[in-house]
Every structure is written in C-alpha cells, then in structure tokens.
C-alpha cells in the first residue's frame, strides 16, 4: 500500500485540511453500528423514484444517448426547468443562458460561491442550518457569519439582518437562505421575504436561495421566493432529490441572471464537464410530468409529521411547528439539560433511536435535536414508543 512521500505531506492545501468532516454524517455513521437502531438522522426519502421517471432514463440509455451533454445542460432539461419556474414562481429564466444543470444542489452551492466570492468575503448564514454550508463557503475562500435566528422562531428577520450588516457582517458579499429550512422546517412568508429583500438591496448583497424543499410545504401554504422580488440579485438553487426521491441521481440546477450565469457556467464546466445524459432526461420527465408525484409524497410526509410531532409533544419536547421539508427541530425537555450531543448519544445507546444533535447546525441549535420523518410510519411509531420509554425511565 503506497504512502505519500514525506516531502509532499506538508504541501497540501491547508485550508481544506482544516475543514472538519460533516458532523451529521459522522454521527449518523457512528450510531449505525448499533444493532436494531431506528435512524431518523439523514434527510433521504424512503420512497422510490416514480416509475415514469425511471422509464424515461432507461429509454434514453436504450437510445444510446451516451455522449457529452452540453456544458450547461441538455435542452430538454433546461426547458423543463424554465417552464416549471415560470409556472410555479411566475419568473422567466431563459434556458439558453440563465439556467445550468448541476450534480445536485451541493455542487450548485460550490459553483455559486466560487463564482461570487473573493478571498475573505463574508457570507451571512442564518442558523441553525445545514452544516455543509460552512465548509463550502470556506473552500471558496469566504468567511461564514453565523446569525442565530432562534429568538425569532428560526426566521431571519429584516431587522436582524440589518443589525448584523452594521456589525460583524459589515461589508458582506452575500446572504443565503434555505426555504423551507433544514433543520427546522420553517417557511418564509411573502411579507418576510419582501422585508428581507429591501435590506439585501440596501446593503448591495447577492441572495442565494436554496429551495430544494420548495414542493414540500404543508397545510396548503404557498412557496414564495426572493427571485420573485429581487431577481436581479438572486441565485436560485434547487433540484429533484427530495421532491421526487432522487437523491442518488444527483441532479440539480441553478437559475440566475445571465451576467453571473456566464461565470457560473464556466466554473461548472471546469468542475464536471457536463451532467449525465440519461439523468437529465429522467429529470426533465419528472419536472414536466411529475406534479402528482410530489403532491402524493407531500401528503405522506404531512401524515408522518403529525405522528412524530404528536409523540414528541406528549413527551415534553417543544418545537417551532414545521411547515415544510421533512424535519422536526425539537427542544430537549429541560430535565435533560442542554447537552444535545450527550442526549442524542444516550438515546441511541439506551433505546436505539438515532437523531442528530442540534448544535451540529450552528448557533441556536444547542439543546435541540433534529429528527427526519422521511421514514416509514412503522419506523416513526417505533421511534415514538422508544422515546417515550426513554423519557419515562429518566423520571
């Protein structure tokens, strides 16, 4: 087995070396070793990709569509995304120069931050949030500025953003929103976004809007986007992993004004050359003809939300009611203290339920745990029973 030459070991990229591994995945992998554990850790749907989407990709393979796709994406996929955004948000993006295909939203985030950040640029990151943001911003040379939103029911208010911009965020280049939110499931109302947009304009910021859960909003609420208000400043990122149960397909997209998209597309082509042909064709089928798929999935997740939320509340957990995505961010009952890592570890070891410590999602997460209900009703009911046993045994 080869080992790296001694005189090379001190020459690697120090910025990358200092980045920690994903605490969420590390914790999930660690407790996965416990036999019989019910894992509510990773945000991956247990549903299957709908058959018509799979068949579209299979048919494309059988047509020998196996050559390099255009760098920005296949025409079928880009047109489908453009049509969908016009229909759902009322905003037109030209598929020829304002949209590009990406390998999921993770790659879309990397590309977008690389396009706008110079070394040392600050990015406002409302927390708690998906922890990968921090590493991606740092890899692009940026500096994440965490903004704890817990006092405002996990919504970044315009007043709070303005306050941050006058203090630790002074001179920031961008702000990123996840809407609906991972880990809290909170959703921004149209009024919230309009107020935020004014501050974003006043401080001359880019707005990155991660809308990967946009189709999974409950109680018949409507999804709104910053791109409906300030399209000239917004970089919209989304994909099909969550709404169509296509996590392993790794397909997403970026939509933005053509001036910044020129840079984004250039970086994207250097990073990946192009996205897999048949995956784009399957994705085009999903976006173009799959509305009923995510409507049905949304109804399933809403039922599951009721099961897990009711069970947790009966056991003394409190939470901001999730309005979208498939996560609950629950505050640990006070008798257990605020050490969420210790709580989650003990819960896994004693009653075999896997949850993610809230502190892994940044400021405002201490004393909370995140539970994913993208799992079967049977698993969720089992988890509630075991959590009930754990809470009662600690009385």
TrEMBL record:
PANTHER family, per database record: AMINOTRANSFERASE, ASPARTATE AMINOTRANSFERASE
The keyword Transferase belongs to this UniProt entry's keyword annotation: yes
Superkingdom of origin organism: Bacteria
The entry's keywords: Aminotransferase, Pyridoxal phosphate, Transferase
Gene Ontology molecular function: transaminase activity
InterPro entries, per database record: Aminotransferase_I/II_large, AspAT/PAT-like, NHTrfase_class1_PyrdxlP-BS, PyrdxlP-dep_Trfase, PyrdxlP-dep_Trfase_major, PyrdxlP-dep_Trfase_small
This enzyme's EC code(s): 2.6.1.-
Name of the protein this chain belongs to: Aminotransferase
Family to which the UniProt record says this protein belongs: Belongs to the class-I pyridoxal-phosphate-dependent aminotransferase family.
UniProt domain Aminotransferase class I/classII large: residue ranges: 37-387
Cofactor(s) needed for function: pyridoxal 5'-phosphate
EC primary class: transferase
Naturally occurring in which organism (per UniProt): Lactobacillus bombicola
